[in-house]
Write a structure and sequence with these properties.
- By secondary structure, the protein is α+β, with helices and mostly antiparallel strands.
- The protein has two domains: 40 residues; 105 residues, Tetrahydropterin Synthase, Chain A, CATH 3.30.479.
- Strands 1, 2, 3 and 4 form a four-stranded antiparallel β-sheet that branches.
- The protein is elongated.
- The N and C termini lie far apart (87 Å).
């Protein structure tokens, strides 16, 4: 009889566990939905880089994909020392660039010495760890394009292609 009075006055332990389980499940569902929305909509990294840069690169990509490819010009191969401190590393790289118009309508040929100089300065400042990865190569490609375009007065470089890239 003493057991019956204790059970009637105290809440059942099973209902507390059910309540906790429901709360945890609800939080998991809300968290999962929020995580899925964050993943599908983007992680907000566009704001960190600026929306103007993103828009400009999208426009350049649209132009490059919708138009016919421009003329592709070879640069002489580069063989140089990288900026690694612990060990001497060399880079052998061959680059081809795509112009936005026929080569005769640009000043590319006249600017080759200045372009090679700018690229040698850029490349010798790089460490092998930074340019070995795919993202490192993408960044390097963009830096090459930007530096080359700053030097050209007539015409622009739309793409940079690595046809040989060896780090030793």
């Amino acid at each position: 009889m003493a057991d019956d009075t204790r059970d009637a006055g105290a809440p059942a332990a099973g209902s507390n566990i059910k309540l906790i389980i429901l709360i945890v499940l609800g939080l998991a569902i809300i968290g999962g939905g929020g995580g899925a929305a964050w993943f599908l909509m983007g992680n907000g990294s566009e704001d960190a880089h600026g929306s103007q840069g993103k828009t400009a690169s999208n426009e350049a990509t649209k132009e490059a994909t919708h138009d016919e490819p421009g003329p592709i010009v070879d640069l002489a191969p580069f063989v140089l020392n990288l900026a690694d401190r612990d060990v001497t590393r060399y880079l052998k790289m061959t680059v081809k660039v795509e112009l936005d118009r026929p080569e005769e309508e640009t000043d590319f040929e006249k600017r080759i010495p200045a372009i090679r100089d700018a690229l040698l300065v850029l490349l010798t400042s790089k460490e092998s760890l930074n340019i070995r990865t795919v993202n490192g190569k993408r960044r390097l490609r963009e830096e090459i394009r930007a530096r080359t375009n700053r030097l050209m007065k007539k015409g622009k470089i739309t793409n940079v292609f690595f046809t040989d890239f060896i780090i030793q």
